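User: Please predict structures.

Assistant: First:
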Amino acid sequence: MAVRRLVVMGAGGHAREVLDVLESLSDRAGRERTTVFAEPGSTTAAAAALVRDRGYEFVDALPADAGHYLPAVGDPALRRRFATLAEARGLEPARVVSPLSTVPDVVREAPGLVVFPGATSARPSPWATTATSTRAAR
């Protein structure tokens, strides 16, 4: 999938773990195409500084050139809100799978999926088709 600009939605610990997975991929140019988004007033100055210190752009409005998104927060209600916001702007859910994980291909195709290092599954799980994307719920 060709990615214009990927927006990682969230700036807390979960988002920084998602950035770790992105950094483990072979596409080193990805950092320049990745932006971290948080709603105004929703994150601490320290969390924003940790994102910026890693070399990522940190914004409080979705970039005009964004094409894909990953909701990177643990709170399910906030994940849904971020997915709704992104998809209302025409963004598509991205997928990122750590090269240090072992999961079946069918699982890897779920929109909005993030697979962290060490994740393993010998067979597709019952939630393999459940996605963060609001499109999957339709």
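Second:
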Amino acid sequence: MIKSRFDHELAKKIVRAVPLFAGFSDQQLSSLLEKSSVYAYDRDEVIMMAGEEARQMYIVLKGQVRVVDLTADGQERVMAFRHRGDCFGDVGLLDGKSDSATVIANEPCRVLLISKAVFDACFLEERDALLQVIAVLCGRLRESWLFHCIIGINDAESKIRATLSHYSKTLGVRDTDGVIINATLSHQSIADRVHITRETVSRVLRKMRNKHEIEMVGRRFKLLPLFFETYEKSDLFRALKADLDNHLEL
């Protein structure tokens, strides 16, 4: 980890798109950035270790990080990926407890670090800001429960369809004839996320390409209309939707 420079206006644009800061004025965002620091991390460098005292929150400005649970023998169980514009570490600042997950750079990245003092000044005295925090936490709850359900599915192709569909909603950019997932998702990262092998992911994605359900735009997946038609007619789509709705009503 080294302290790094990052374009101020680009950083402001990225932070403004984070739901937590959606209601901030230009002046508030500039003040936040002036009081915070940007750091560069190399691939596989630990950004935040499980059990550490919560002293800051993080916003990904460039690159991708993975949220993992480390087993007793040092193996990683991938719980989530965070991309440009995603934040983490904020829950510990709210409840004063250490985080239960470790966050590692999945590729070279730049991350904005916001101290607890700055976080408290921004959020704990502003009702609208607190509502944004609640909205973000609810979104993470939905994602965690969704992938809990996906991992329990026995069919590998169904796991991959559900995963791509989810990322099309959270990271998707609509194109003239489909949706581009605006993040680099490797076959290995998908495999890690839903607990299957990389070879299985490659086989299923090749099948989807041959059926013209997906295509690649550079290193990004583009989901075509047939992908959504097939998925939304499936029993899996209806089951996941019902399961998620029922869980969040409890």
